[in-house]
Input
Amino acid sequence: MATGYWLLQSLQNALPGRQVCALLNQTLVSAADPAFADPAKFVGPVYGRDEAERLAADRGWTVRQDGTHWRRVVPSPRPQRVMETRLIRLLLQSGAVAVCAGGGGVPVVRDGQGQLTGVEAVVDKDLTAALLAEALDADALLLLTDVPHVSLHYGTPEAEPIGRTTPAALRAQHFPAGSMGPKVDAVCRFVELTGGHGSHRRPPRRPRHPRRDRRHRRHTHRPRPRRPPRRT
Output
């Protein structure tokens, strides 16, 4: 909820007079999703192998090696629906700004009686964003990242930024599952299902205030004009 609080407060400060709210959401997933049989999403702190195996035995965890350490892994099932979609739609229709689906939402399943119950899993936040945007008939889906472009061969001398493209062209490429892969999948899904516009980009950085940036002051300082010589 910390990120929701930061976004809520920042939007309230940036949009005086607008109603802004942050919602805790439940994301429905299928209990039959294959991800439950193959947990692969790393969560939590790192451990040594002996401690990780002890925790796995004591708490029923699944653990895997992550580099030189060991970590717990949980399922990452595909989102089916954000349960508060109707409420979010009502808020948007009223003119409010809704901060929602943070972290992909809390994963839930339907039990044998049709009741919602939580499950230990992590839902991909980008796929949830695409699902919610589709359900709300959004015109565009914008995913913010810490890089300016999606790139082919990222991190290599052959890196090539991708500009305007199509879902088919993106799906023909390989993107790492742990980083850009889910974002590309989410945007492709949204565009394919809605015909809308999808984009990955880095948010613009706020310019520094001239009074708070000494380097800026040095570059913009104007020397005082010299007084003309006094006539005698």
Helices lie at 2-14, 49-59, 85-93, 125-135, 167-171, 181-194, 214-220. The chain has seven helices and 13 strands. Confidence is low (pLDDT under 50) at residues 212-227.
